[in-house]
Design brief:
With about 260 residues, the protein is of the alpha/beta class. The chain has a single domain, classed as Alpha-Beta Barrel (TIM Barrel), CATH 3.20.20.70. It has ten helices and twelve strands. An eight-stranded parallel β-barrel has the order 1-4-5-6-7-10-11-12, surrounded by six helices. The radius of gyration is 17 Å and the shape is globular.
Length: about 260
């Protein structure tokens, strides 16, 4: 079985890493460059860089801060925010990204995923989906979780994977920043619908939340979190040691 990945997430706004609760009340934390350096040497398996207001503000992702961040990362780097065309894919890949995450851009132009996969390969195209419960359904939200598209999230994810998305990041707005555990019911439904790597995002508050995730849903490939890593509430080395103790496949680097 492949090792489970632990992925810190840099939500970047105006050049700073920020974090809030349920996608609201964002507060500055640190420079993405400084955090990238730290995580690259702290045992993270990958790193995600989201320019979280690019789509909402109708602009392209900031490339200057991305270049500086990429220069300090020696693990795979996924980049998203304001990705709406093949030119955007090319631009962030030229800046040092290994994979490109698309969200609102794919909602606006569903053909983008298929066209990008044909040029760059499925492994390069990451579908990021902001999901929130609306009644008894799961809806896709756009523009950084601000707009309810009315689309069924499970159908949307399945369609995008069929069209070439090689990986899916499931961002649960309901559990984001709450620190009471990942959205297991939502992730269970996603894993039933697709056979590509699924990354769980939103809700981690302690080491036990990752253990519960991987034990309850062996099909989930990775756990993504932000504030608990940024504020030192969970050390990646400690998390991986506990995963190893629980016999969850994990990559541990001796330093």
């Amino acid at each position: 079985m492949l090792s489970k990945r632990i992925i810190p997430c840099l939500d970047v706004k105006d050049g700073n890493v920020v974090k809030g609760i349920n996608f609201k009340d964002l507060k500055n934390i640190d420079s993405p460059v400084a955090l990238a350096k730290y995580y690259s040497s702290a045992g993270a398996d990958e790193l995600v860089f989201y320019d979280i207001t690019a789509s909402a503000e109708g602009r392209k992702l900031f490339t200057d801060i991305l270049k500086k961040t990429a220069e300090n990362v020696f693990i795979p780097l996924t980049v998203g925010g304001g990705i709406g065309s093949l030119a955007d894919f090319d631009r962030v890949l030229q800046c040092g990204a290994d994979k490109v995450s698309v969200n609102s851009g794919a909602i606006k132009d569903p053909s983008l995923i298929q066209r990008a996969a044909k040029i760059y390969g499925d492994q390069c195209v990451v579908l990021s989906v902001d999901v929130k419960r609306v009644g008894n359904d799961f809806h896709v939200f756009a523009k950084g979780g601000r707009i309810d598209t009315g689309m069924d999230a499970l159908d949307w994810i399945e369609d995008c994977v069929r069209n070439g998305a090689g990986e899916v990041v499931v961002n649960s707005i309901d559990t984001d920043g709450v620190k009471k555990g990942f959205d297991i019911p939502l992730l269970t439904k996603v894993c039933e619908r697709v056979n590509v790597p699924v990354i769980a995002s939103g809700g981690a508050g302690k080491i036990a939340d990752f253990i519960d995730l991987f034990e309850q849903l062996p099909k989930v490939d990775a756990g993504l979190a932000a504030s608990i890593f940024h504020f030192g509430e969970v050390k990646i080395a400690d998390l991986k040691k506990e995963m190893y103790r629980k016999k969850i496949p994990v990559r541990i680097c001796e330093r």
